């Protein structure tokens, strides 16, 4: 009963206040400095990178350098860790996830295609997905079985390495060997098919950086599929499900 009353009160609060402040406007340098002075405690290791309005009075979105996005009062005397929802006419909108979508889209757009293993359509590319991938993962293998159908429907599949067991694991060596190979696509397919591949961990390979990037973007398992718009799908989807997700069905 109490939980229901609290949810009702929160919904009324957001409906009453969401229109009073424009969302997504960067704070001034003076306001960000105020947040830094309040939040950056020497023994806590927090560092404020940026801050912007949320649409709720006196509640701002703060991005930390190494940590989650938080919501803070303008003065920085209180903050919340968690997602902020906007109450719409028929549903709730996860504003925090929308921001993460935008961040993922911007971050992945800056990557060098040469550092990915890409399976591209022979004809027109209508859309693409970026997949954090581990060849030892059953559902990654299952997803790769859908790549031919995705390609046939104009979807490009871009693989980034994500060795779930960490950078000292055999999975790391396998993935690095694929990325370092003369023919990365063929080598990765061999690994997926459990064929023998010579270990070839070349200097400067991108696997460690891609693993770290995945962690920063919220990857917690594989496959982790990111759409062209930055939406993350945590787990396997069939080709037909992905086509629907991408709006191409």
Automatic annotation (TrEMBL):
This is Thiol:disulfide interchange protein. It comes from the Bacteria. One of its GO terms (molecular function) is isomerase activity. Residues 123-245 form the Thioredoxin-like fold domain. It comes from Candidatus Marimicrobium litorale. Pfam families: DsbC_N, Thioredoxin_2. InterPro entries: DiS-bond_Isoase_DsbC/G (IPR033954), DiS-bond_isomerase_DsbC/G_N (IPR018950), DiS-bond_isomerase_DsbC/G_N_sf (IPR009094), Thiol:disulfide_interchange (IPR051470), Thioredoxin-like_fold (IPR012336), Thioredoxin-like_sf (IPR036249). Its main location: periplasm. PANTHER family: THIOL:DISULFIDE INTERCHANGE PROTEIN DSBC (PTHR35272:SF3), THIOL:DISULFIDE INTERCHANGE PROTEIN DSBC-RELATED (PTHR35272). Residues 1-23 form the signal peptide. Belongs to the thioredoxin family. DsbC subfamily. The keyword Isomerase applies.
């Amino acid at each position: 009963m109490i939980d229901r009353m609290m949810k009702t009160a929160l919904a009324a609060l957001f409906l009453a206040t969401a229109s009073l402040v424009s969302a997504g406007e960067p704070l001034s340098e003076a306001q960000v400095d105020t947040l830094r002075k309040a939040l950056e405690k020497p023994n806590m290791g927090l560092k404020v990178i940026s801050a912007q309005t949320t649409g709720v009075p006196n509640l701002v979105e703060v991005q930390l350098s190494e940590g989650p996005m938080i919501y803070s009062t303008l003065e920085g005397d209180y903050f919340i860790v968690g997602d902020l929802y906007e109450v719409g006419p028929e549903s709730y909108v996860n504003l925090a996830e929308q921001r993460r979508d935008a961040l993922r889209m911007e971050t992945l757009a800056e990557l060098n295609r040469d550092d990915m293993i890409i399976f591209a359509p022979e004809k027109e590319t209508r859309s693409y997905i970026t997949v954090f991938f581990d060849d030892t993962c059953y559902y990654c293998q299952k997803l790769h079985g859908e790549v031919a159908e995705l390609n046939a429907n104009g979807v490009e599949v871009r693989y980034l390495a994500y060795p779930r067991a960490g950078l000292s694991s055999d999975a790391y060596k396998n993935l690095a060997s694929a990325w370092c190979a003369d023919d990365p696509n063929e080598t990765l397919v061999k690994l997926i098919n459990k064929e023998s591949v010579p270990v070839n961990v070349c200097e400067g390979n991108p696997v460690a950086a891609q693993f770290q990037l995945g962690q920063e973007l919220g990857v917690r398992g594989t496959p982790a599929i990111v759409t062209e718009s930055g939406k993350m799908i945590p787990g396997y989807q069939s080709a037909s499900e992905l086509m629907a997700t991408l709006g191409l069905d």
